[in-house]
Each structure stands twice: as structure tokens, then as C-alpha cells.
Design a protein that fits this description.
The complex is a heterodimer. By secondary structure, chain A is mainly alpha-helical. Chain A has 20 helices and ten strands. The N terminus of chain B is likely disordered. Classes of the chains: A mainly alpha, B alpha/beta. Chains A and B meet through helix 19 of A and helix 16 and helix 17 of B.
Chain lengths: ~500, ~450
């Protein structure tokens, strides 16, 4: 198999499988393919996943930037966009000089942004791809699933189950679409422009691939100077006149090899004749670790949880009629002084420092709890809210899938003992006091038994019962908030903990 | 004045019919009309015969009532209410009513509160397209929320308006006993409403006065004893092969009710012959047991024959939402083949067998609805019952079919009831409980089901 075909095949497989990770809301694919997210470069660095980082560094030192052509889903996506953009042109590209000022400038800015502002989310190529897949493709996938569920239901099959499609954040959707559109436009026009001028991962890997053992080289004894190679190079890194290939920009796509009619271009061991210079030490970015961080305010955009199609119920007038369903008012997101981060993230700071906002956790959250933040300091990073569901005791999906170490793996037992927040009771909205009805739904559903029901009138033990929260036992899962009958704002809600505690 | 004359003529017509009725058939079984026009089909499904419907007549009433009565509590509904707010699919109701009348059904039972209050209106529209002497209307005094005399009388007159008629053939005190001893005393005695209704009967605007019953033995005996003073023309009871000996909740076994009423020679209207479909949706081995006896008879037909076999039964009500149900019931009763003693024993044995399946005795009557907190109560209970019947309730994670049963329960649950209307949202206020004619402790059942769901979800069963 020609080496280019091998690259294309592997790239297609990787891209499809990574995309699948962002589509599958059931969490089954992640059991098998979760590692594909974990071998992404920046997430691996942020997760301090030394094994993966070292393997990727060695891979690049040996083979060049194959990472950019095979493993990175945004790289493969750009190849697809470029191919569509250039499908009619025979010789689409020309050589250009490296825009070093720009790419080192962006890298420096990125490192500073990541280390100081914890804004690593913005230019991570994997995250850009993930956000777009989550925001644009997953809804289509889910609607497809719901259509199949509709058919399955009629066939008496339980092979599919219905899922809820909802807009988690309009600004994040807009930004995600805009970013992928910019990348696609750049690729459509000029191939790997993004990878070689903006992408911090591309720049860092470029430092290494400059010295890789195997590189594309031009055999000057065979070259007839036709420039076919250069004009087919999507990285614009071949200077045909000088017979040089800028290995720091070459993404090892191997397109040029087949284009050369003279067999001059080849993927060769480049230290054969020269004295091998030892591999330069990997310049690992110190993106991890948290610097001083401002305390941040609650992202407080109000998202209306649209209620299930509520049939217009006849108001109970003088005569109660039989049948029909009462309207259900959607829940509103309460203003939380401290936002909630998922169990396993351990603290708001460590979450913010590591998360690249790839939305993998958001894609997989089965309880509609995680959604991307609007807040400037944590823009696009996930946070927790309970209008549509609560953080169920049996689920540790987000911790399982997170590739960046922002949400660390935890077991079900761990989860039941991690306090991500605590419940706060709001007297004015509590149904026994407002409606005069017995309730206690919060206490009934508290997985840690942190809520006790006490008489609302201390002098009358028979009076309607109201909840009392033992914050020492509360883990902040939101069962009480989600299942509270008070609407649109619950009478009991969760305040986050900046640093999670273990009971 | 005109109205009065019309009624006068009506009385004459009825007197005439009375005489004819008495002279032709003293009592008992006979087809409503001599016409025979069976629709033939050759595809294995029996046709739906017209003109062979068994009818019952109990002098002195001249009425020849079809043994199949149409229950108007389960009319097909629209996905969204129509322009006038009516939730009922009127076109479909018209079709069903036309078909029923063409096949000999002539008793239509409705109530002001049925189908969110739209049943009378829709039934009235459909029936008014037929000559008034072709059918009998039954409706009820549903003054549950307000026993005030004026309000109650307004409800009574409103029924006539909705039903587009100036007399009601069968008028019932709705669901006595369901709110305990209070119902009869406060709704009909203390406010003088019963006296009013008796006067209305004397005036001919109510042709037969009776009551429907869900409650305890004491209350039943007490109301029945009023027969000596009021003279009940008919009584509506819940009777089926499951309730004959094993009534659930506060309900009284039907064998007792039947015997007591028959003693006084009062004709009976039967409700819940199918228990809201529960006797049509059977656990598999009960299903095969019935099918093995009569492969070509529907499971429901057994229940309908059981309900119609006792001779003091005037008519058996069935809330037929679908044309297929209507057709099947017409086949069963055209004519009725009474159960033999042996068949009756067979069904009673079947009832004993069914007690091993712990379904919640919900008949989907919707009296509990709407739940002020948005729960779809019958939706949750019926899903649970479906899983019971299909063997999809697990006792433990170690059960052989645990994985499939778990999936069937959880996936089916989300399909049949939207998340916001599931049992987890029940706060236990119990406002529904007094409305349940089967006296189910609804919050208790919902919370039990919710605990089961939690165990399934957390895999801790």
C-alpha cells in the first residue's frame, strides 16, 4: 500500500471514530474508543498524561507531524475542506515562506493565555473540532436516533430510546460554528494555513518535526525542477527551486511523493549521511498548573427549560373535569453565587486550568446536567445545572471521558462522597408553605439522606413538614432541586463549592 | 308550551310502546329488530352482523335496550384541542356513533365531567344527527366539587343543553360511595337534590332514575334501602369476572352487589366489564388459557359474555375508543351466547390465577386527572401494569431476564410518560386519592414505582 493511502485510511478511521465520540450520547462508544480523545496532544499535556505526551513527542521526532495528518480530527477535517475547495484545480498551492512571527506570536500568546488566564480552550484544534461536532452534528444524530426510536416503538423493540435535543448555549453554538467556519474557509482557500500559522499544537510539533528522523526530501539528482510537488503541497512548505522542504510545517501527508514524476520526492531517513544531531529536548509547554486566578462570578444566563409538550389543560374551575394534563412551567436556572463543577473536577480552578472545552463531557452527559458556560472567564467550559435533570448517583460518565484531566476519573463510590456543592432552602417558594400541600419530594430523593423533614410550625409537631438540609451530608447532586415541585424556580437549590470536599 | 306538547306526545308514544313491549315480550332476550343483514367477510374475521344485537327489556319500562351500551368516557381525542377548545375527535365520534346505531347499539352513557368536560357535547352532536327515538341517553349528576343545590341543578340543565335534548332516558347519581358516606348524604340528601330529581322524573324529563356505585358494603346497603321510598329504576355497578369474587380496594365483590339488587328486581347497568382494558391485556399464560378454550374468540369477548350473562343486566357499558373494539363487541353480542355454568367457573378460576399478577387496579378512567403537579398518573400506572403483564418486573438483579426487563421498563417508561410527568415528581399531596373509584392510594403506588425505577437505574435491585 502506498504510504499516502495508509495515511488516508488511518486518518479517515480516526476522524470517524473521534466524531463518533461526540455523537454518542449513550456512553457506550466511549468504553471502547475513549482513548482516541486521550491521545490528543493538548488534552494529554493538560492531563499531565506523560505517557501519551512522550509517545506523541517520539512519534513526531521519528516520523514528523503525522499527528497532524492522522490523529488530529481538525487536521483531517481541513484536508476534507481543502479537497472540496480545490477539487477543480490541478495545481492548487504555491510555496510560501513560514510566517514565523505570527506563529510564534500566537504560540506565546497562547501559552500566556493558558497559564495565566486559563483560556487554553480557544485554539486547541481537537477542542475546536469537538465543539463543532457537539453543537452541529450531535443534534442531527440525536434526531436520527429519535426517529429510529419512533419506529422501534412501533415495532415493539427497545433497541433505541428517546433522547432530548436542546440548545445548551446559543453563544457557544455561535462561537463554535464561527471557529470551525474560519478554519474550513482557510483550508478551502489555502490548505493547512491554520495548522502552520495559528495552531499552537502545530507550532510545537513543528519544533520537533524540524529534526525528525524521517522527512520528505528532494533528491536533487533526480529533480527536474517542475515544481509539481510544491504546487500540490497543502502546507505550502516545499521550496522547489531551492529543493528544500520546511519540515517544521510539513504535516507528512505524502501527497507530494505521488505527484513527482521523477521519483525525486521521497520520505527518507534524513540522518543517513550527515552526523546525526541528537533529538532536541522536547519543549514542553508549561500550560498546566494554575496561576493566580480571580474568583469568578456566576454565569447567570437564564435558560428556559422548555417543558414537555404540555397539553392545554382546562383550569380547574368550579367543577373539576376528568382527564387532561396540567401545564408544567419550565424550570429556570437559579443565580448561583458559586457555579457548580462536576464531581471529579475537584475545584473550579483546576477545572478551568485543564479544560480545553472540547464538549466531550457535555456530549455524553445522560442527565442533561452539563452545558457550556457563558461566563467570560470559563467561556465554553462545562458547568453543572439542574433544570433538566440531576447528577445521578450511578453516573460517572464525564469523569470517564475527559481527556484533559479537567474531570478526573472517579468511581461511583467516590462520587457519593464528593461534595460539589450544598443545597440551600428557599422558604418563600416551598410548596407546603405556598400551596399548603404535603410534599417532601426533596427528602424522598436525596441519595445521601441529607434532608430531614421538620414541622413548619415549631410549636405544632403535626404541622406540614418542611425540609432541613444537613450540609455536612449533602453532596450537591441536585436531586432535590430538579425534583422540587416549585416552578419556575425551585424552593431548594444547590450552591457550588469552589473546592470540592470529600466526606 | 311547545316543549310541553312535545313531551306530552312523547309520553303517548312511550305509553304505546309500553303496551307493545309488554305484549310482545314479557322480559328477556330478543333481537332489537327482526332485520338480518350480516356483513360477510371471507378472510377469517367474522363479519359484524347488524340487526342481531341482543336486547333486554324490563317492564314496566318500554325500553328495549341493546345489551351493548356505549360508554362515552373514552372518546378518541385530538393531539391538540380544536378551535372551540374541544379535545375530542368529533369526526371519529360521529363515525363510531353511526356505526354503533346501525348495528343495534342504542344506549349511550356519558357524564358532565368526562373527557375534560367535553363528552356530553360531542356525544350530543353525534347523536342529534339521528332520530331521538332511536337511542337512549344516560348521563349523571357529577356534583363532586360543589354539592350546592343551585350549582347542581345548573349542571343537570346544562347536560340537557349539551346533549341537545329535553329529556334524559337514564339519569344517575354519579359514583355514590366514592367519597365515603359523604357522597350520598351531602350531595343528594342534605341539599334536597334527590327530591328535585324525583320531581323531574314525575315531570317526565327524567325517564329512569338510578345511581352508579363505587364504595363499601354499608354505604351500598344504605342507598339501596332507599328503594322503598325513591324507587330506583336501575343501578349501575362494576361487574366482571375479576370483581365477582376479588374486588380490589374498597369495592364490594360484584356477586354481593348483583344478588342484593336482583333480590329487589332492579335492572342493572354494568360498568367496567373489562376493567378499563385490564381484562383484555392479560399476562401471557392467562391469555393462552382463554385462547385455548376458544381460539377464534377475542379475550375481551369472554369478559363481555360474563358481564351480560346474568339475567338482571340491562346493558353492559364499554368505552370503545376504536372501531375495532366496537366491531368485536358487536360480534360478541349479536346475539349474546350466555356463559354456561362450566364456562363461568372457568372464568372465575382465571380470575383467581390473575391475582398472582400484582397489577395496580387502575382502569384509566382519568377521574384523578389533571394532577395539579403535572403527573400523568394513569400513564405511569398503566406502564407499570404493562410490564407486570409482560413479565418485565424484576425481583432482583440476578433474575434471568433482568437486563432485558430493565431496559423494557426504563425505555418504555420514557416513551409512555414524559420525564416531567413521571412518578419521581409526585409530591404526595394526595389530592388525587378521593377521586379514584378503585380507591387506589395513588401517591403510595407512584412512590413505590419510583423507588423501583431508582433501583433499576442504580442497578441496586
Amino acid at each position: 500500500m502506498p504510504i499516502k493511502r495508509l495515511r488516508q485510511t488511518l486518518a479517515a478511521v480516526c476522524a470517524v471514530l473521534v466524531t463518533l465520540l461526540f455523537l454518542d450520547f449513550t456512553g457506550t462508544v466511549h468504553l471502547w474508543l475513549g482513548w482516541l480523545a486521550k491521545i490528543q496532544f493538548l488534552p494529554a499535556l493538560l492531563a499531565l498524561n506523560a505517557g501519551v505526551a512522550i509517545v506523541l513527542v517520539l512519534l513526531t521526532l521519528v516520523f514528523g507531524r503525522v499527528y497532524c495528518s492522522v490523529i488530529c480530527p481538525l487536521g483531517v477535517f481541513q484536508d476534507l475542506a481543502a479537497r472540496l475547495g480545490h477539487r477543480k484545480k490541478r495545481l492548487p498551492y504555491t510555496h510560501s515562506h513560514p510566517k514565523n512571527a505570527l506563529r510564534y506570536g500566537v504560540l506565546a500568546a497562547f501559552v500566556v493565555a493558558a497559564a495565566v488566564l486559563h483560556a487554553a480552550a480557544w485554539f486547541d484544534p481537537y477542542a475546536i473540532y469537538g465543539r463543532a461536532a457537539n453543537a452541529v452534528v450531535q443534534p442531527l444524530w440525536m434526531w436520527g436516533n429519535n426517529a429510529l426510536d419512533y419506529l422501534a416503538e412501533r415495532a415493539g423493540s427497545y433497541a433505541f430510546y428517546p433522547t432530548e435535543v436542546w440548545l445548551r448555549s446559543a453563544p457557544v453554538l455561535a462561537v463554535s460554528v464561527a471557529m470551525i467556519a474560519v478554519v474550513a474557509a482557510l483550508a478551502w482557500k489555502g490548505g493547512r494555513t491554520y495548522c502552520n500559522t495559528i495552531c499552537p499544537v502545530g507550532t510545537v510539533l513543528g519544533f520537533l518535526s524540524r529534526h525528525s528522523l524521517f522527512r520528505i526530501t528532494i533528491d536533487t539528482s533526480k529533480c527536474n525542477g517542475c515544481t509539481l510537488c510544491a504546487r500540490n503541497c497543502k502546507a505550502s512548505c516545499i521550496d522547489a527551486k531551492a529543493h528544500t522542504v520546511d519540515a517544521s510545517r510539513c504535516v507528512a501527508c505524502f501527497d507530494c511523493i505521488g505527484k513527482c514524476t521523477q521519483g525525486a520526492v521521497g520520505y527518507r531517513f534524513s540522518y543517513a549521511k550527515k552526523k546525526p544531531s541528537g533529538p532536541s529536548p522536547a519543549s514542553r509547554k508549561a500550560a498546566e498548573g494554575g496561576a493566580g486566578r480571580r474568583a469568578f462570578l456566576a454565569g447567570s444566563a437564564v435558560m428556559l427549560a422548555s417543558a414537555a409538550a404540555a397539553q392545554a389543560a382546562k383550569k380547574a374551575e368550579a367543577v373539576k373535569m376528568d382527564g387532561g394534563l396540567a401545564d408544567i412551567i419550565g424550570k429556570k436556572e437559579p443565580k448561583r453565587t458559586t457555579p457548580i463543577t462536576p464531581p471529579g473536577s475537584w475545584s473550579a480552578r483546576q477545572m478551568q486550568a485543564h479544560c480545553t472545552a472540547c464538549q466531550l463531557c457535555v456530549s455524553v452527559c445522560p442527565n442533561q446536567v452539563l452545558r457550556p458556560s457563558h461566563s467570560l472567564s470559563t467561556f465554553m467550559q462545562p458547568y453543572v445545572s439542574y433544570e433538566r435533570g440531576y447528577c445521578r448517583p450511578e453516573c460517572t460518565k464525564c469523569a470517564e471521558v475527559c481527556p484533559a484531566g479537567a474531570i478526573r476519573p472517579i468511581s461511583r463510590a467516590d462520587k457519593s462522597a464528593i461534595q460539589i456543592g450544598h443545597a440551600v432552602w428557599v422558604k418563600d417558594r416551598c410548596v407546603p408553605l405556598t400551596d399548603g400541600q404535603e410534599c417532601g419530594n426533596c427528602a424522598r430523593h436525596c441519595p445521601t439522606g441529607a434532608i430531614s423533614m421538620i414541622p413548619s410550625d415549631p410549636s405544632d409537631p403535626e404541622s406540614l413538614k418542611i425540609p432541613a438540609v444537613d450540609t455536612e451530608r449533602c453532596i450537591g447532586c441536585g436531586a432535590c432541586e430538579n425534583l422540587c415541585p416549585a416552578r419556575p424556580l425551585s424552593a431548594i437549590y444547590v450552591e457550588g463549592h469552589e473546592v470540592h470536599r470529600v466526606i | 308550551m311547545e316543549e310541553k306538547t312535545a313531551r306530552h306526545n312523547e309520553m303517548n308514544r312511550r305509553d304505546f310502546l309500553k303496551i307493545v313491549g309488554i305484549s310482545t315480550a314479557a322480559a328477556g332476550l330478543n333481537a332489537c329488530s327482526p332485520r338480518r343483514a350480516a356483513e360477510e367477510t371471507d378472510n377469517g374475521v367474522a363479519g359484524t352482523p347488524a340487526g342481531e344485537m341482543t336486547c333486554r327489556q324490563f317492564p314496566p319500562s318500554p325500553d328495549k335496550v341493546s345489551i351493548l351500551g356505549y360508554g362515552c368516557m373514552r372518546w378518541p381525542t385530538l393531539p391538540a384541542p380544536g378551535g372551540d377548545g374541544n379535545v375530542i375527535d368529533q369526526e371519529e365520534v360521529n363515525r363510531l356513533v353511526d356505526y354503533a346505531i346501525a348495528h343495534g347499539v342504542n344506549y349511550f352513557d356519558t357524564a358532565p365531567v368526562y373527557v375534560q368536560g367535553w363528552s356530553e357535547t360531542s356525544t350530543g352532536i353525534a347523536l342529534s344527527r339521528h332520530p331521538r327515538d332511536k337511542y337512549f341517553i344516560a348521563t349523571k349528576m357529577s356534583n363532586f366539587s360543589d354539592p350546592d343545590f343551585g350549582e347542581s341543578v345548573r349542571m343537570y340543565r346544562n347536560s340537557m343543553k349539551n346533549l341537545r335534548t329535553d329529556y334524559i332516558d337514564y339519569y344517575l347519581l354519579h359514583s355514590l360511595g366514592s367519597q365515603g358516606a359523604r357522597s350520598f348524604q351531602t350531595r343528594f340528601l342534605d341539599n334536597g337534590l334527590l327530591d328535585f330529581l324525583v320531581k323531574e322524573r314525575e315531570a317526565g324529563r327524567i325517564r329512569h332514575l338510578g345511581w352508579s356505585f363505587h364504595g363499601t358494603k354499608d354505604e351500598f346497603d344504605r342507598i339501596l334501602s332507599y328503594h322503598e321510598t325513591v324507587h330506583w329504576d336501575f343501578i349501575q355497578i362494576q361487574l366482571n369476572y375479576s370483581d365477582w369474587k376479588y374486588a380490589t380496594g374498597r369495592n364490594v365483590n360484584a356477586d354481593y352487589l348483583y344478588a342484593k339488587i336482583a333480590e329487589r328486581r332492579i335492572p342493572m347497568v354494568i360498568m367496567e366489564p373489562l376493567l378499563g382494558g385490564r381484562l383484555a391485556k392479560l399476562p401471557e399464560h392467562v391469555f393462552t388459557r382463554l385462547k385455548a378454550r376458544k381460539p377464534e374468540a377475542s379475550v375481551a369477548s369472554w369478559a363481555f359474555r360474563f358481564a351480560a350473562t346474568p339475567p338482571m343486566v340491562l346493558t353492559v357499558l364499554s368505552g370503545m375508543t376504536y372501531m375495532e373494539h366496537l366491531q368485536d363487541n358487536i360480534r360478541t353480542y349479536s346475539p349474546l351466547v350466555p356463559l354456561t355454568e362450566e364456562e363461568k367457573r372457568f372464568l372465575l378460576d382465571t380470575a383467581a390465577l390473575m391475582r398472582e399478577y400484582p397489577t395496580v387496579p387502575c382502569n384509566d378512567c382519568q377521574y384523578c386527572m389533571p394532577c395539579p403537579y403535572g403527573i400523568d398518573i394513569p400513564g405511569v400506572l398503566l406502564h407499570y401494569n404493562k410490564c407486570v403483564n409482560e413479565g418485565n418486573i424484576s425481583q432482583s438483579r440476578l433474575d434471568e431476564n433482568y437486563a432485558e426487563a430493565r431496559r423494557a421498563f426504563l425505555v418504555g417508561y420514557d416513551r409512555s410518560v414524559p420525564k416531567l410527568r413521571q412518578a419521581s415528581h409526585c409530591i404526595g399531596c394526595a389530592q388525587c386519592n378521593p377521586h379514584c373509584p378503585q380507591s387506589i392510594d395513588i401517591p403510595k403506588e407512584l412512590q413505590r414505582i419510583d423507588r423501583y425505577v431508582e433501583q433499576l437505574k442504580q442497578d441496586t435491585l
